[in-house]
């Protein structure tokens, strides 16, 4: 009895297009008998057995593999009879064949009311492989496996030739007679192949054998070499891994492997003991765990720290909770989307914040502001991120930003959300980890700088189209420039030129941005009653509230009317300027305003020097300083206002004896009054321990030599006292001096 024994080892594999390219549509395909069900998850998410389109074959489909690079959405299917069918978005040089046995692509779901949102690939084939090998190739079912599409013109597969494991190459050739497939041996392998993974540059592959050891196969010459791993000659996983991927960590090529015991290896180092699935997403490693969380680890930051012995739980990647049993299916680099499958089969799409911010950073670095804005608008990312990521680049490319965003309503959304906060270091600090922070110092408040810059660009491009956006720039500043916004609206209303935006619409929009009462007051502050009435009408105010008030103001003299308006709006500095122009009859109100609001320094130079109003303002300022006990300053102010008596009193309290005696001379004090003043000041200086100055006054102004010596002796200024005795040539002063010192 003759028979043959076949042993098949099955493992779960998700057949999908490569995620590393922005061109990837995240196509995932499932083999269902004689059909291949495909769905581009970038544009639509439907779980199998539903799909976007399917390839119906004339026989069973056994294998499926996707291309790489810019053609990553193309795939080929290996049928049960060994022939190959290609599904191509771009046919290139492929030529269709005429055969009785045909396959066809069928679009699904359109008849159920759905619109087709994805491009449907074109089918080419089936093609037969012509083998050119020295031995006998096995023709048993599933004898060729681990199919790969390494380039546009070459396929790879693992097979057996004379019972020896071989890596086979299938070249795709195009000529005038059509497309042909030519098979040959690339190299022979030492053991059964467990997995095969394509390198990043598609010039080599990592082959994992059944014992977990790994070798590197070069596609150029078919050479096989050990895959190095640290001090070991050859990388060998502690356990064979059913899922293997190749990535770069800090510029070094690393092999990721997931075993059937949920151990995730980086080379031969275990980084996670409870990993259920993983995928490489750009510069991130995504993995799910038995604790039902999604981890987003930066390949060049988190992973090196884990490899250096740091616990995975300490990584700052903000783990995201998932439904129990969720597994990764694919991801979309373009917008940070991740698709997971639940245990019951349904698919769910999530947008982890680190991946989304990384996608936004890529758009912003390429100055693709339109794409970034749309992504932020859909996912409600704070629009400050547009300028906070790289403020200098944003300010230098504002015109490009406006042109790409285009719609004034979208620009208004950006402007209204502006704050002086840096959201990269606050709101998104935990997720903003894929870029080094660029410190940028604005020339003033951030909101003001951006609003001024945007306003300038909008006026240069099309100030009519972006009229509402220009109003927003004025309204959003730290100190809103609502008066400028209102004057623009008034100019628009008075203009005879037809604009895309009417004055009424512009005013309604401005009322939406700011409080009605605030805008009414700002309009009142422009002193333009036409503008005030225009705002009042649109604000739905009761005419009884403002018409009598406006009529009363309209009857006043212009400067006094402006003063009353400023007082109503509590704009006291402007009110002071206006009331100062109203003449002497309103000077009492001016002085009252100066005193009540302490506007002394603002009022000092509003009046002609030497006038009565000028002196009154300076005197009022002196009184204020005197009350605050700033005696010397108040004395100077009194002196300037001509109030010498008040100045003398202030200088006396300040103990500025020079200015006191100067004021006394200007006031023409007689000798007796001057001596009394000098004695009073000298005694005050003694009490303040300023003995030398007191002695000087007694010597120069009072001519009391004995008191001079006594004051110096009381202060223990012995040498000065003796010097005075000798200079006076009065030895009789020596005895009291010695007695006082004993």
Automatic annotation (TrEMBL):
Q: What molecular function does GO assign, one term?
A: tRNA binding
GO cellular-component term (any): cytosol
Q: Which GO terms describe its biological process?
A: tRNA wobble base 5-methoxycarbonylmethyl-2-thiouridinylation
Which part of the chain is the ELP1 TPR domain? 560-721
Q: Which domain of life is it from?
A: Eukaryota
Domain ELP1 N-terminal second beta-propeller residues, every copy: 30-329
Q: Which residues form the ELP1 alpha-solenoid domain?
A: 353-553
Q: What is this protein called?
A: Elongator complex protein 1
Name its species.
Ornithodoros moubata (Soft tick)
